Amino acid sequence: MRIAIDAMGGDLAPKEIVAGVLAAASQYSDAELILVGHEAQIRSCLSSELPVNVRIVHAEDRILADDEPVRAVRRKKDASMVVAARLVKEGQAEAMISAGNTGALMAAGLLIIGRIPGIERPALAPMLPTMDGAGVLALDLGANMDAAPEHLLQYAVMGSIYRSKVDGMEKPRVGLLNVGTEAMKGNEVSKAAYALIEQAPIHFVGNVEARDVFARNCDVLVCDGFVGNVMLKTMEGTASTIFGALKQEFTRTTFTKLAAAVLKPGLSRFKKKLDYTEHGAAPLLGINGLCLKSHGSSDANAIKNGVRQAIHALKNNLVGSIAAEISGK
Description:
phosphate:acyl-[acyl carrier protein] acyltransferase activity; Phosphate acyltransferase; FA_synthesis; lipid metabolism; 12 strands; phospholipid metabolism
């Protein structure tokens, strides 16, 4: 297994990216990890020689967070993200991971690697945290702002395959995000999507509401990228506000500081459940090669978990399974 990692993408690149890859290399000796980026900058992050299963592919340029995605992919031919995508396209790597510009990764996936035949629009599918720790795979959460009912149907099928192949779920429950649980709730797109998904060969549990996601009322949550991204940012903001408020209260007096010391183990476990770094990366499902998007502020732990995720998906032939299901073979 050969996995290309964009060493220059993300807020903490290249230091945290390199550290995460080195941690993964020691844990997954059967995988070849390819650090793609400016070689001198990558080597400046090293304290010793590279492990035998890690190598560097030099890329002179990088795509920045504020670059226009399609223009950057087309013009920056020697950017680390573009080079990593090209390695996948040319068969020199089976997967790629980047914490860089999400729109650019989407463009690189479409323009360089290409879509799985039959997939109209790929979907970004991060794992949302749940109280039981199993998570909910949600798609699409930002790749496409608008979606037709047929796109939501494909998201449902791809999400079901992911949870079955990668997470080992025998019969993953698929839900459609809506404003109510009744079948005829929502706008015209969601109503039409409901009718289509209901006929698909998956375990569809109907409409679900956002307030129940943390309780894992489904294993796969289907929505368009606009609604999904708003939901994701709301969840992130809520979690940040809660922990900020708790910290403020627990440091107010000597008594509350003592109480915080007693509660710290439980609060740490709760915070870990809501920590995106534990899930690693979000697959861009529908691309004809494994493509994973790590959070922009990913640290070494997030990158290491992204590599773990990629290895597991490759071992379970995720892309091939989606292609076979979509083509009907």
